[in-house]
Every structure is written in C-alpha cells, then in structure tokens.
C-alpha cells in the first residue's frame, strides 16, 4: 500500500500530542532536525503543536523549507515560559530546541517537566559539545569545527560547503527514533523518559561507514578507514550533455554492461577487477562510448539489458515522476490559493490482517513475546527495546543498519545470511557499521531442509525485516502474507528500493542511483557544476534510519492496538526526505538556498571564506543586529587603516578590512540585510560576498575567527583534516568517549576495534548496555537452533546437509 493510502487508514500515532518548541534557532541552522521530526509525527497521525517566539528568525525570511516541514502543525506564537510549560505538560512528546538560557534557565528543561509529568517523553536537541567547546545550532558551524568540510573533494582545492544535509538529517533521525522507542516503552510500562542529541551527534549518525580504527585488520580494510574510498563513481555524460548514473553490482550486471559497451570481457569478475584496479581503468575507458548516444537512449538500452541506471536530476525534479505520486512520495496540496507538490512521508504503517484465534493463542506484545519459546532475548532491563526480538533477513546497508539501531536500543537481533556470508561481508566497513550487536545464523533460505527453521524463527520474532527486491520475499516465502499467517502479531518491514508498488517497484536501486535521482549529487556539486557524489553512502544510511523509525512506529502501534503491523519504507523515500525542503508551487520550483559554483555556501551570511593564509573559516550572520556589527567591524590587530582603506601591515597591497567604509576597487557592505543569494535582493547579496571576500583576505583565518567572536559574531575555523585526522578527531575526543559516541571492543580478525558507537542517549535506564560485538558468519547458528527447540540430532543433520553453517565448521 502506498504512503498516501496508508494515511487514509488509522495512523499509528493517532491520539498523540507532540509539542515542538523552537527558541533561538532557525530552519536554516538546524536543517531537517528542526522540522522533520514533527512532520513525520504529523504524517503518522499525531497532533503536532509548534511553539515559536514572537521574533521570527531573520535568517529564515527567504528560506521556504519550513513551508514543507511545518505543514499540518498547529502554530503557537508566544514568549511566555508559563504558557510554553503548560503546553509541554499537556503533551505526550516534547521536542525542545534552543540554547540553555532560553530552555533550562526558563524552567523548560527535562528535569522540571518530567518530574511534573512522569509519562512525558521529553526530547532535547542541545548545542553541540566536544572537547573543542560548544558550537551553536548552525549545521555549518558544527561541520566546520568537526573537519567535515574537508572530507569530500570539490571542484577546487580546499574545504567545501558539503550540501548533503548531514548534521540536520542525522539529528532528525536520532530524535524520531528516540521518541518512538520511548513511546513504545511507555505503552508497555506506563513510564515516560528522556533523550538528548545535537547536530554533532547527527553528523556522526550519518558517517558510520566512514569511521573505524582497528588493531590488526588487513591492509585493504584499515586503508579504507585511514584514507577513504578509491571506488569510482560511474557517472557519465551522454551525447546530449545529460548525465547518467550507472550501477552494476547486482548479479550478472557487470558482464552485461561490458557486453553492451563492447568492452573486453572480464576474466576475473567484478570483485577481482575492483581489487586490482582494472575496474577503475574500465570506468575511465567507458566515457567514450557513453558520449556517443543521448541519455534517453542509454536508459532504454541499459534497462533492457538488466543494468541499473538513473538520470542525474536536480533537487525536486523527481517530484514530477508519476511513480512518486502513485506511492505517496509526491503529494499535491492546496495552500493559500496555490497548488503545491511536496515530498510525502517516507514511512507507511498499517495494521496487518485482523488478529485470529492463532494470534490470540500466540499472544501479542512484548510480554507475550517473552513467553514464546525461543532463544533468550539479549536486551538489558531498562533498555527501550528490552525483550523485543528481531529477525533480520536484510543485506547490504539500509536494512542491516535499521536492525542495528534496534539492537542498540536493546533488542535481540538474529541476522540470517547465506552459509558463505552476505554480499557485503566483502566490504568490512559495511559490516562494522551495520552488524554490531547481532547474532548470526548462516543458512540457505531456499533449501527445503531449512523451512522448519524459517517458520520457527518467524513465530519467535516480534519484528521481521528484509530489503529484497519486490517479489523475492514471495519466492522465499517470507512475504508479508506468509509472515502474518505464521505470526499475526509480528511487525513486518520491507525496506525496498522504489517502494512496494508502482511502475518502478521492481527496479534495482542503491545509494549512488538514489543520489542521482533525488538530486543529492547535483546539490553537493554546486550551481552549474558537474555533480559531486558523497562517498559515505548517505542514502543507504538514511534508508536505514528511516526503516528503523518505521519499525519503531509499528512496534508502538502494536503495543497500542494489540495487532501486528506492516511497515514499508524505501531508499527513494529516504532520498526524497533529504531534499524535502524543495517543492513546487503552481508548477514552478520554489526558490530555496542553493550552493554556489565555488561550493562556499548559500550567501554572504552563511558560507565559508578563505583568509590571507589560505585557511578557511565559516561565518553565520543570523540577524540584522549581527549584520550591522559586521558592517561596522573595526580592523583586527595588525591591519592598519589609512584614508578609509584598510591595509595589511605585512603587505604592500591596499585591501579592505573596515566593511563600513568604501574599499579600494569595491563597495562597502550593503546596509540591507542580505545573508542569502537567490532572493529578491540577489545582486546586493553577491555584492556583499565580494566585499567580504576582499576584506577577509587581509588577515589569517584564526585572526578573523578570534576577531569576529570578540565582536559577538558567529565564526568557526574550518578544521582542515585528512581522513585519518578526521577519524582521530572523532575517536580520540574525550568528550565523545564520555558521552558514548565511541564504541571499543575486540573483533576476532581485527583485534581491538573502535568506531562510532550507539548515539541514542536516553533514560531513565539501568547502567547496563548491549555488549558491542561483530558476529562472524554463522557464529551463533547452533545456539540459535538449540534455543528454537531443535534437537542435537536435527541440528547435526542440518549442518551435514550444508544448508546451515556454524562458524568453525569446514564448508
């Protein structure tokens, strides 16, 4: 069923009230974090109240994102802390943003509110804190300080503004999953809880595949974490100038693509060519044939040959695709006399078939699950998903990450994979990022001998998850109907590529294809440039978090209704969510902040600047008061002023520093507040950028940051780190370790291993936490079979048939 159809049914969060309080923050600064959690709750049926102050964030005056993110919310405008407190105390969920002086110091903090109302689920998005200090709630400042601006090569040397919505999207997912997990626990126990996060936590939540460090992993494994990916992006310009993204990692695709392009057949195959560098050489060689035909021709030819490919589109262009309308990802709305098309909810949750006598006998809910015969659940008491059992049939990244999020929350997760291991076992970074905390059962799902095992596992599970292409689950007999017949109380999740229905449902999809189709590659590339694809597989990661949120919504609905649930998410929906601030009005795209060709940012008041020493810094000018301070800023120490013109004391070149006076060969900073390009005063904004660029060339980046801060302006030095320096900055930061942002444990083949840890900080809970482990292939097979009630004779027979593998067994 499409998301649009699901919205017409009883929605899982119907009857809940969510109050989000945004004080001292902006949509531009928080990104998706500031509006998407409430938007998702509204889409899931909750009544959402948004509380803002009487002073509108001036930085947002020409930012249209909120028109989508704050849809279907009830707006309350007030500066009265008592009024805000009353609203929060009447809520089921509170989502509170802003600095401490506007939240905790006004009696709106967690302790005061949860003491007054123990059933409240209170979520706090705080300013970002590391050992470097505290960064205000602007994604640009957080990412600059973290060194993120140097982790992707742009179209010029040096750091770039990475327009991937990383910190804002990750924070949104942490807020949504925390809230739904605590709501599910409240439904089971009657007790509320709290969770906290920040934009920095959100940034880390998107980078699980990028950060790791081992004691003795193989060189090729450790090299990925130390130096980054060298895998080519198969992006090609066609004869008509249009761009095409190609992916051929599926079975047989590589050989078919080589045949279509008339290249020399590969004797060793896809993975061997990847390791030897032959694949990189082919990728370069293929530019010539792709340049001979228009994109439409290539789309037809490649798809006919079973090779996955997608056009490279700009953000929002995919909303015109009829497939998105059919599955509820492109939603028409009438607003103030206009006809809009906006991104729909990426999560569909609906009740499974009505409970039967079988379901009643099996029992429903966590209590009943704990009483069913099967392997003992591994969650510690007090964890949000203690007692919840998850059967993970998924592979690659999005599905496995969703299951790992559930494991981090305390669920007992069994990963089912082929006897030789799932495909991504060859990519250690994906194993590390997506398989923590699970138990591995290695078996052939299609073998007749394993069918009794599959059926007992399904009866054991509270959650059944897979991300097979549409139709595969039916062939394997683990589809929604079969699961519902065996276990009517299960929450069944299909995390697909293009959604469960519609004309493109059976098309293959992966991170690169969805980056192209949803506009992420174009957004990061900058205006007029070729696309730039982020290398940390952000669409797969986003898909995992979205699926986890959907499953948690399903678990909450099951607790509330006593019925099993069907959850559908997709990579396409996840990718569209990242670009959800873009929409169409009356057939035309609505202007939104856009990255410039130099990849510096959105305009003079929200971008990075180079300084005299070649270093860069980030500047945010959030309001007119800050703009006026910038206009009248005196020169920093070491820069003299003569006749209204600033001159550096160590340079013979006359340049500007005093932005309030005319400059040689330039103009003073405009009086009008124009922080962003693309608005009604675009020319003034560009003039301001030119003035500031000349001004900031007169002193070093560190001098400018200190000087700007001394005058109350928000500036942050870009920490220019290579990949190894970036991971060290994350893993070795003492505050990160104190807050649990780093997980450290032994791995059989790697020795001591460190990675980004569970980022869901919540309570109240007991001190115990899930023990971090990475399972070997089939490491727990016999233990799981024993727990399911199979005899030793039956287990030995399964092992002898080779349909099930136990780690240590000779294949």
What does this structure look like?
A hairpin with a 5-residue loop joins strand 10 and strand 11. The protein has an eight-stranded mixed sheet with strand order 15-21-20-19-16-17-18-33, sandwiched between helices. A seven-stranded mixed sheet has the order 3-2-1-4-5-8-32, sandwiched between helices. It has a four-stranded antiparallel sheet with strand order 13-14-22-23. The protein starts with a helix and ends in a 6-residue tail after the last strand. The chain has 34 helices and 33 strands. Helices cover 36% and strands 18% of the residues. The longest helix is centred in the N-terminal third of the chain and has 24 residues. The chain has 811 residues and is of the alpha/beta class. Helix 8 runs parallel beside helix 26.
Number of helices: 34
Task: Report low-confidence residues grouped into runs of 5 or more.
Answer: 1-8, 354-381, 641-647, 649-665
**Adjacency order of strands in the biggest sheet:** 15-21-20-19-16-17-18-33
Which structural class is indicated by helix and strand composition?
alpha/beta
- Name the average pLDDT: 92
Radius of gyration: 27 Å
Largest sheet: 8 strands, mixed
């Amino acid at each position: 069923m499409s998301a649009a159809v699901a919205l017409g049914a009883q929605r899982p969060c119907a009857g809940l009230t969510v109050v989000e309080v945004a004080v001292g923050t902006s949509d531009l600064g928080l990104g998706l974090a500031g509006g998407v959690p409430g938007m998702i709750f509204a889409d899931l049926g909750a009544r959402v109240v948004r509380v803002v102050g009487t002073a509108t964030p001036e930085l947002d005056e020409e930012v249209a994102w909120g028109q989508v993110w704050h849809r279907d919310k009830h707006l309350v405008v007030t500066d009265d802390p008592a009024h805000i407190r009353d609203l929060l105390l009447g809520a089921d969920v509170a989502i509170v943003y802003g600095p401490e002086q506007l939240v905790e110091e006004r009696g709106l903090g967690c302790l005061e509110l949860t003491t007054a109302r123990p059933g409240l689920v209170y979520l706090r998005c705080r300013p970002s804190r590391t050992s470097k200090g505290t960064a205000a709630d602007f994604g640009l400042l957080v990412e600059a300080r973290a060194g993120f601006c140097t982790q992707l090569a742009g179209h010029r040397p040096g750091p770039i503004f990475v327009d991937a919505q990383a910190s804002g999207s990750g924070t949104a997912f942490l807020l949504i999953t925390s809230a739904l997990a605590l709501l599910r626990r409240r439904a089971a126990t009657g007790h509320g809880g709290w969770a906290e996060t920040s934009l920095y936590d959100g940034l880390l939540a998107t980078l699980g595949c990028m950060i790791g460090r081992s004691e003795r992993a193989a060189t090729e494994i450790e090299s990925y974490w130390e130096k980054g990916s060298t895998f080519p992006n198969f992006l090609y310009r066609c004869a008509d100038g249009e761009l095409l993204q190609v992916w051929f990692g599926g079975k047989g695709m590589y050989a078919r693509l080589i045949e279509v392009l008339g290249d020399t057949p590969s004797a060793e195959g896809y993975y061997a060519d990847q390791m030897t560098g032959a694949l990189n050489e082919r990728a370069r060689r293929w530019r010539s044939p792709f340049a001979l035909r228009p994109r439409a021709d290539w789309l037809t030819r490649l798809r006919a040959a079973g090779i996955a490919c997608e056009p490279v589109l700009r953000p929002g262009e995919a909303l015109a695709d009829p497939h998105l309308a059919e599955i509820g990802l492109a939603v028409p709305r009438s607003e103030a006399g206009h006809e809009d098309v906006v991104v729909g909810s990426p999560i569909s949750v609906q009740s499974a078939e009505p409970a039967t006598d079988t379901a009643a006998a099996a029992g429903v809910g966590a209590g009943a699950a704990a009483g069913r015969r099967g392997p003992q659940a591994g969650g510690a008491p007090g964890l949000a998903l203690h007692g919840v059992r998850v059967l993970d049939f998924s592979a690659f990244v999005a599905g496995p990450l969703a299951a790992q999020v559930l494991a981090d929350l305390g669920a007992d997760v069994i990963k089912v994979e082929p006897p030789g291991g799932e495909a991504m076992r060859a990519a250690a970074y994906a194993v590390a990022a997506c398989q923590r905390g699970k138990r591995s059962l290695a078996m052939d799902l299609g073998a007749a001998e394993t069918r009794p095992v599959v059926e007992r596992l399904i009866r054991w599970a509270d959650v059944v998850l897979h991300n097979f292409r549409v139709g595969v689950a039916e062939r394997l007999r683990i589809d929604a109907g079969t699961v519902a017949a065996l276990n009517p109380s299960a929450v069944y999740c299909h995390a697909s590529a293009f959604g469960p229905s519609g004309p493109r449902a059976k098309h293959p999809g992966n991170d690169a294809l969805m980056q192209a189709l949803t506009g992420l590659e174009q957004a990061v590339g900058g205006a007029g440039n070729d696309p730039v694809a982020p290398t940390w597989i952000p669409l797969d990661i986003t898909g995992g978090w979205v699926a986890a949120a959907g499953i948690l919504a399903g678990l909450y609905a099951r607790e509330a209704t006593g019925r099993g649930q069907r959850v559908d998410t997709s990579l396409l929906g996840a990718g569209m969510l990242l670009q959800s601030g873009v929409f169409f009005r009356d057939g035309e795209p609505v202007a939104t902040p856009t990255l410039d060709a130099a990849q510096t940012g959105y305009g003079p008041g929200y971008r990075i600047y180079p300084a005299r020493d070649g270093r860069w810094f980030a500047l945010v000018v959030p309001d007119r008061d800050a703009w006026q301070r910038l206009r009248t800023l005196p020169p920093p120490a070491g820069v003299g002023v003569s006749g209204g013109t600033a001159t550096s004391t160590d340079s013979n070149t006359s340049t500007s520093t005093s932005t309030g006076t005319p400059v040689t060969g330039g103009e003073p900073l405009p009086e009008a507040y124009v922080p962003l390009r693309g608005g009604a005063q675009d020319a003034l904004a560009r003039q301001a950028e030119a003035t500031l660029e000349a001004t900031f060339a007169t002193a070093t980046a560190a001098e400018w940051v200190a000087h700007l801060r001394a005058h109350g302006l928000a500036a942050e030095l870009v920490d220019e780190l290579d990949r190894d320096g970036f991971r060290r900055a994350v893993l070795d930061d003492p505050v990160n370790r104190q807050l649990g942002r780093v997980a450290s444990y032994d791995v059989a083949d790697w020795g001591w291993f460190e990675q980004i840890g569970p980022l869901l900080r919540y309570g109240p809970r007991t001190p115990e936490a899930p023990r971090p482990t990475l399972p070997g292939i089939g490491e727990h097979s016999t233990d799981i079979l024993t727990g399911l009630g199979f005899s030793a004779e039956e287990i030995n027979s399964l092992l002898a048939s080779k349909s099930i593998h136990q780690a240590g067994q000779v294949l």
